[in-house]
User: Fold this.
Amino acid sequence: MSFFLPDTIVMGTDRTWRHYLQFLSQLGVTYLPTVRLPERSVPSGHSGRHVSSSSAVERTSRVSRGHLRSPNELRPDSVQIPAVFSATSEILDGPLSTMQEKSDALCRLADIVAGCKRCVALADTRTQTVFGVGNADARIMFVGEAPGADEDHQGEPFVGRAGQLLNRIIEASRLKREDLYICNILRCRPPGNRNPLPQEAANCREFLNAQIRVVDPEYIVCWGTVAAQNLLDEKRTIGKLRGVFHQYNGAKVLCTYHPSYLLRNPSARKDVWDDMKILMRDLGIEFN
Ligand code: SF4
Assistant:
């Protein structure tokens, strides 16, 4: 869908932009690609405050993200998050204190994700989006990489054999699945279970950040290299990242091997167990 971006815009307040973005939203626009237009001269003799079109685009991304730290602020890196007309900003600007408010916000975000077609190849081949499940007010968030075939069919992250192994790890750690919030870097299944492409991860980052913002976990566990490297903007392997806490947006982040890797390499189970003990000790849960 094309949209109208005026050459120059007389700016009043941020609210002006919000109204403009809401107008675009009503037209069905949910996404603006990053564009840099050439500077245009400001007409002389106008008393209003003019913003050049390139400034206008930069301003769009700042305002639309509301007070959520933008994906690029959270993750300054080589993969630039597209300048997004944030379909999520209105939700994130609302109250997010109580369990009910958080649950409602997640439901609204899931509705937006269900219609997302930013990654055309994934949107064309998915059975459904896999948004996330669990406690909207969880202290611990699990982040995996992307839905597989089972997740794509059932609409839930971490089901199938890897999910069953994760359940056993959760149980052994004296946690319950309903105490957690579980989601992925991507919300759509990559064909053939390939790894997410950098652009796909960038496209989906707005939704991951929104889920983190709503749930506001104290701990995030990244399961596998894809989750760890994407969340933390890291190039190091999971073997180098595991075993210590990292920080992300105020949460302590622990990285460990993905359950599907454990199915292929059972000897790595001890490392995962060591990582879970680090988490549980920090939570104040004692082990023998
Ligand atoms: S992976 Fe994320 S950004 Fe891409 S189409 Fe699915 S929901 Fe949209």
The longest strand covers residues 251-256.
